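5-formyltetrahydrofolate cyclo-ligase: structure tokens wanted.
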Amino acid sequence: MKKSEIRSKYKALRKQLSENDIEEMSLAVANKLITLPVWEKTYFHIFLPITEHNEVNTEFILHLLSGKDKEIIISKSDFETRNMTHFLLTDSTKIKKNEYNIPEPVNGIEVPSNKIEVVFIPLLAFDNNGHRVGYGKGFYDKFLAECKPETIKIGLSFFEAEELIEDAFESDVKLDYCVTPNEVYIF
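Answer:
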């Protein structure tokens, strides 16, 4: 399948999920994450979910990171430049939804991309080769290209892998892992 078909398919599948499904599957994803060999790292980038799009609820992962005393980084998106600016999440960080319902920090301590060691990535779908399909705006492609090559990239998905994304480019930044409620994929 091509990216456009995959986008349609997984947006429709996500729409069918109940609040209870999302909570249960998000908790299962967080529990699977505990098994990954990433916990010696310090700087973790995480997305705050767009609840209107039924994304993985990252609250459980935030508790996990907090409990392990990690530095948590969240981003603000600039839709004109397609750039993301990253901020340390602290007790004083104010969060506000932007015009696209993305929860973002209003202010804070800026963190450069090259300091980030682990990135949790929202996605609609992924394939057995570690390619991913997002919403198609390219924010994460640009951001991941700015990270160090050894930065660990972890996709979070409610659904299992597609066999192949036909129109994935070799230049696309691949995932190192993708975690679903039932499976940990290693690429």
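The mean pLDDT is 95. The longest strand covers residues 71-78.

Cheers.
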